[in-house]
Write a sequence for this structure.
């Protein structure tokens, strides 16, 4: 009587599929080395940055194996949690485009194009930039285009005076000063704001 053949264990199949998909070059197996959480973060970050420089096309996907943490006292993988936090941080800095949990003990990571290393700091600075100060309430009667021209003129004037670091603190006063100076040169009569805009555009051209 022949004995029935045993099936291939599911974990073995998964490992075989992962090896075929990623290969050794695109797999970082932290579970084998048993590092501390801090060691795992240092090693994973260096490896991901190196892989990003080498990635092309389909090779932008890599696999990081952290282990499930079944043998840890808490039953959770501190390495997995530390690497997960690292991946979110590297996404903000332009190294990682995204990641997903592959199995409870591994992540599939999509590497960002190298150009993201330069674009990410620009986006961060733009997100952190404070909003510009509001226009002076006394200029509310002017339409939006007139206020925009007046703000541009005030900014150019402050730049010419060497005021850059704390320009916003002086912007309201400079807008009022420029408005008073330009408006005083205009005759009374209809279409006065239209003439004011023309005068502001002329003043801006003189700074160019």
């Amino acid at each position: 009587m022949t004995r029935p053949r045993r099936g291939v264990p599911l974990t073995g199949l998964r490992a075989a599929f992962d090896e075929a998909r990623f290969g050794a070059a695109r797999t970082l197996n932290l579970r084998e080395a048993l590092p501390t959480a801090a060691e795992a973060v240092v090693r994973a970050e260096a490896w991901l940055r190196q892989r990003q420089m080498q990635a092309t096309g389909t090779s932008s996907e890599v696999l990081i194996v952290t282990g499930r943490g079944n043998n840890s006292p808490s039953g959770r993988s501190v390495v997995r949690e530390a690497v997960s936090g690292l991946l979110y941080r590297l996404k903000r800095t332009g190294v990682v485009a995204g990641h997903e949990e592959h199995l409870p003990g591994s992540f599939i990571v999509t590497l960002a194009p190298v150009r993201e290393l330069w674009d990410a700091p620009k986006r961060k600075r733009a997100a952190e930039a404070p909003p510009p100060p509001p226009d002076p309430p006394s200029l509310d009667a002017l339409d939006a285009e007139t206020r925009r021209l007046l703000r541009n003129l005030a900014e150019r004037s402050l730049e010419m005076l060497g005021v850059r670091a704390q320009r916003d603190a002086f912007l309201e006063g400079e807008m009022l000063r420029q408005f008073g100076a330009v408006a005083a040169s205009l005759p009374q009569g209809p279409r006065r704001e239209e003439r004011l805009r023309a005068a502001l555009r002329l003043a801006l051209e003189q700074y160019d």
